[in-house]
């Protein structure tokens, strides 16, 4: 420390000694040590929890209680609607049988 | 708009999973007492990380509609949803002002 001390001004010497006494870092040249980065808090958990958790789906409910034989009324209604449309010939085409798919084949 | 929420959520998870290691690399690149060669290596390592894991790729969207603009950060809602909910009295402590 005495070798370095001779190169420093009196004010810097005092700063160096006070840093040694109080256990602080002494940075005579004012170099950037990246302390700023280390002081930044970890934001990950806070950032991830921005959106509220999704309400669980019917499928998950069924998996939670496998022995209760739950019936998804919405899904049943959807399938019934598709069935009636199909019977009237107004349903959506099967996969690969649509207009777009037949264009690509040519 | 729902897909935007899902995309943003993915980015948030990517950010959280890489955050600590990225912070270490950033510390090395910002540290002038480290050898320049090592600092450069740390910078290169940082570039190798997925772009998604950067904090600047995260955007605060409306949690109801997924709208990206006009979002009130305190309530995480876009301006229209904020108005609707506030008038319904669903946001605690918010009342319509009149004077």
TrEMBL record, chain A:
Compartments (UniProt record): Mitochondrion
Region of interest called Disordered, as start-end residue ranges on this chain: 86-106
Gene Ontology CC terms: mitochondrion; ribonucleoprotein complex; ribosome
InterPro entries assigned to the protein according to its UniProt record, in alphabetical order: Ribosomal_mS33
Keyword tags: Mitochondrion, Ribonucleoprotein, Ribosomal protein
UniProt biased composition (Basic and acidic residues): 86-97
Record PANTHER family: MITOCHONDRIAL RIBOSOMAL PROTEIN S33, SMALL RIBOSOMAL SUBUNIT PROTEIN MS33
Family: Belongs to the mitochondrion-specific ribosomal protein mS33 family.
Protein name: Small ribosomal subunit protein mS33
Species of origin: Dimargaris cristalligena
UniProtKB/TrEMBL annotation, chain B:
Domain of life: Eukaryota
InterPro entries: Ribosomal_uS14, Ribosomal_uS14_CS
GO BP annotations listed: translation
Organism: Dimargaris cristalligena
Protein name (Swiss-Prot/TrEMBL): Glucocorticoid receptor-like (DNA-binding domain)
GO molecular function: structural constituent of ribosome
NCBIfam families assigned: PRK08881.1
Any single Gene Ontology cellular-component annotation: mitochondrial small ribosomal subunit
Alphabetical keyword list: Ribonucleoprotein, Ribosomal protein
Gene3D superfamilies: 1.10.287.1480
Family affiliation: Belongs to the universal ribosomal protein uS14 family.
């Amino acid at each position: 420390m005495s070798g370095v001390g001779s190169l420093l001004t009196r004010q810097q010497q005092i700063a160096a000694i006070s840093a040694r006494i109080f256990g602080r870092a002494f940075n005579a040249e004012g170099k950037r040590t990246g302390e700023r980065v280390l002081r930044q808090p970890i934001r990950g958990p806070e950032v991830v929890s921005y959106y509220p958790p999704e309400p669980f789906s019917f499928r998950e409910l069924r998996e939670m209680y496998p022995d209760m034989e739950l019936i998804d009324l919405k899904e049943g209604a959807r399938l019934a609607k598709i069935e009636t449309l199909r019977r009237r010939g107004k349903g959506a085409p099967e996969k690969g049988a649509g207009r777009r798919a037949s264009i690509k084949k040519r | 708009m729902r897909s935007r929420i899902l995309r943003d959520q993915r980015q948030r998870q990517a950010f959280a999973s890489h955050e600590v290691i990225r912070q270490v690399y950033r510390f090395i690149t910002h540290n002038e007492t480290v050898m320049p060669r090592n600092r450069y290596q740390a910078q290169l390592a940082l570039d190798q990380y997925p772009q998604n894991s950067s904090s600047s790729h995260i955007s605060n969207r409306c949690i109801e509609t997924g709208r990206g603009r006009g979002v009130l950060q305190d309530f995480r809602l876009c301006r229209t949803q904020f108005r609707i909910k506030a008038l319904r009295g669903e946001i605690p402590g918010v009342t319509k002002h009149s004077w």
